[in-house]
Automatic annotation (TrEMBL):
<protein>
    <submittedName>
        <fullName>Uncharacterized protein</fullName>
    </submittedName>
</protein>
Length: 63
């Protein structure tokens, strides 16, 4: 194998690893986006629950 072939193989391997890293970064960002959405939904759920409790408390106080 001559020098040019080794450089070409090293370049191809580098591109391959960069693509894998890029794919992993995309997957990681998607995973973080899902976690953030779940956290937002959790806080929204807590907010709605508190609002319902408050409405129920007000209804009880009116009676």
């Amino acid at each position: 194998m001559y020098h040019g072939q080794r450089n070409t193989l090293a370049f191809v391997r580098t591109i391959s690893v960069q693509k894998e890293n890029s794919d992993l970064k995309k997957q990681l960002l998607q995973d973080y986006a899902v976690l953030i959405m779940l956290e937002i939904l959790r806080y929204f759920d807590i907010f709605c629950e508190l609002k319902l409790e408050d409405q129920e408390r007000r209804r009880i106080l009116k009676v």
